[in-house]
Amino acid sequence: MKYSFLFLFIILIFPCFQAQELTDNFKYKAIYKLTWQIDSTDAESVQSETMLLFTGGASSRFSSEGQHIGDSIQSAYQEREKTPQSFREMRSKMPKTEFNYYIGKNVDSRKISYREKIIKDYYEYIEDLSNLEWDILTETKKIAGFKVQKAKTNYAGRHYTAWFTSEIPIPDRPYKFNGLPELIVKIADEKEFYVFELTGFKSLKNPIFNIENKEEYLKTDKSIFLEIKEEYNANPIGAMEQIGKRAKG
């Protein structure tokens, strides 16, 4: 019985790869260090992770480096037989990440898409790419070798200070931030519970395609998605029984 359940669990979470669509191509890669404080009352609860922004053309994609590498590993195993052995082998190579999402921005449609897989289901919710209201200030300084300019905004109930540079002519930003004319080098909330800081930027010698799995995404809204995720975190086994049942078109 134990092994039957294990194999069922593998079938449910082992990635199912279908046809893929080449949508746009990315010409640049920006590397950010995300630092966050899990417990606002504990200064020792700080963690960090590397995040990647692929951009260029009309779209961009933001994710953790671990998620990006993990998907590449999963792709390498797509032709293999789905067995407990191959699953264990694949999982042993997967990097750890606290962020299992992809955030896509599309300039033409003015939309932000948030996509995340929970067990077997792929969830997606869409937000408008509405420019944030920025207060652009005259203060400048150097960060990571770039001359940057200061700007402030409010987002999701937090006050953020950003430093952007005209030395990298890419009108894109990490996470869901948008509206500034050039690339953000550093952005943090006023208490520095969340800090994104640029650690690397390069033009890709061979532009890569934005490859999107043509999965049947379950369309939902942000509030329902957060409820689903909270339920899964609290009771993963119970959530498995609800696969595909909670989504809103």
Describe the structure concisely for a colleague.
The chain is 21% helix and 45% strand. By secondary structure, it is an alpha+beta fold.
Descriptive account of the structure:
21% of the residues lie in helices and 45% in strands. It has 249 residues and is α+β, with helices and mostly antiparallel strands. The protein has a single domain (20-239), classed as Clam (outer membrane lipoprotein receptor (LolB), chain A). Strand 4 (101-106) and strand 5 form a beta hairpin. The two termini are 37 Å apart. Residues 1-23 have low confidence and may be disordered.
List keywords for this structure.
12 strands, twelve-stranded mixed β-sheet, alpha+beta, 249 residues, single chain, 5 helices, outer membrane lipoprotein receptor (LolB), chain A, disordered N terminus, globular
List the helices and strands and how they pair.
Layout: H1 2-13, E1 20-37, E2 46-56, E3 59-64, H2 65-76, H3 84-93, E4 101-106, E5 111-118, E6 121-128, E7 135-143, E8 146-155, E9 158-165, E10 183-189, E11 194-213, E12 218-219, H4 222-234, H5 236-240
Parallel strand pairs: 6-12
Antiparallel strand pairs: 1-2, 1-11, 2-3, 3-4, 4-5, 5-6, 7-8, 8-9, 9-10, 10-11
